[in-house]
Amino acid sequence: MNSATLLGSLIFAAVLVVVIAVVIQLMVRGWRHRARRQAELIGDLPDVPGRMGSATITTRGLYVGCTLAPAWNDRVTVGDLGYRSKAVLTRHPEGIMMQRIRAKPIWIPQESITAIRTERGVAGKVAARDGILAIRWRLPSGVEIDIGFRANDRDEYDGWIREAA
């Protein structure tokens, strides 16, 4: 390899690294801008009640994320709602509790739940044969969101849907 070819390759590599860095910077800026824009819309999540009845269903799996209803790909990025994590979903008479690893728990009061169904995809996560449990609920701010949850055992979805009916 002669020096001109080496120099051209190094310049190309440097330009490519700069372009990749700029693209990543723009993606991070877009994520933060979306979070600021949605912060007013989402508002505060309901507090976890001090006392709850006994759990009727408990399911382990993956918290996929939240989306603004009815768009399954308009991901919510406020706080830690935009990050996937392992989770345990528990049904109580007063509502639904989602306890996530390294994130705040999400409490969904019973009166806020509008639908529980299975979906093929939510928040950019696509699964086979209706592999995601979607819980649609109304926030105290009045906005409806969908929470996506992919269970380790998808046969447990039947119990969640029966409980919702």
UniProtKB/TrEMBL annotation:
InterPro entries: PH_bac
Origin: domain of life: Bacteria
Spans through the membrane: 6-28
Residue ranges annotated for the PH domain, each copy included: 42-164
Pfam families reported for this sequence: bPH_11 (PF25362)
Annotated keywords: Membrane, Transmembrane, Transmembrane helix
Name under which the protein is recorded: Transporter
UniProt organism field: Mycobacterium decipiens
